[in-house]
Amino acid sequence: QSVPQQKLLTWLSVLECVEVFAEMGTARVWGEMGRWTIIVLIQLAKAILRLLLLLWYKAGIQTSPPIVPLNREQQQPLHPQDMEDSSTGKDQTYIGRRSSRVVRSLQNTPSLQSRHWGSPQQREESQNRRAEEMNQPPTPLGLQETVAESIYITRPLLHLLSLGLWGQRSWKPWLLSAVLDISSLSLLSDLKDLNRREQAELRRRTILLLYYLLRSPFYDRYSEGRILFLLRLLADYVPGVGYVTRPLMDYLPAWQKIYFYNWG
């Protein structure tokens, strides 16, 4: 990845990290008008950055989060003792004579902070596999797939526009957004030879279609009563589950009011 492309990904990641906080903070300070203004500005900025990545830098199917979080356990450097033993040719593992099981020798056991519970070979294979996944180039997109990804990127802006035209209680924004999401996934379904990150992203987008059950006005008219009834039933008759379901019932109304939780 080039430096400008990496900067775009960084800014996109920052926007996704602060969008909920920005919406809630602006609503508290400037009210509903300020809240919807910041929502539009953030979604517009995200769409511009994503379109630049798609059309200019040919970034392919864009994943969420844009930058893969650092796995500190896998990125942890080798213990100095391991490096010293490796350089001096000492064996780091012991193979059992009867079981043939590979275990780390006691003299090469690292400190507790840097210890992992697999063999050195497993750790090395995991690191190599992760590095290979990170370095895989994006799958080239044809015209159909580029249109599909563009639909997915611009869907939030079209949804906001439809909310402004028809209001939050109308079914038209909900239906428009659903049609755009399903159309994008349908057009991308013909794409073959995707790398693992892209396959995981398409699975994530498919699972997120379940959010339409929790989005207004469908949630207000159909889902709310059934979901609350199910949660209350679990809390009353399944021991221990109430510690999770009761706070969830209290949280759902607040969750519903935050646009970026629902539609972002």
UniProtKB/TrEMBL annotation:
Record's subcellular location: Peroxisome membrane
Database matches in InterPro entries: Pex16 (IPR013919)
GO biological process: peroxisome organization
Similarity remark: Belongs to the peroxin-16 family.
Keyword RNA-binding among UniProt keywords: no
Full protein name: Peroxisomal membrane protein PEX16
Keyword vocabulary terms for this entry: Peroxisome, Peroxisome biogenesis
Keyword Ion transport attached: no
Superkingdom of origin organism: Eukaryota
Main location: membrane
Composition bias, Polar residues: 105-121
Comp. bias intervals (Basic and acidic residues): 122-133
A Pfam family per the record: Pex16
Region ranges (Disordered): 74-140
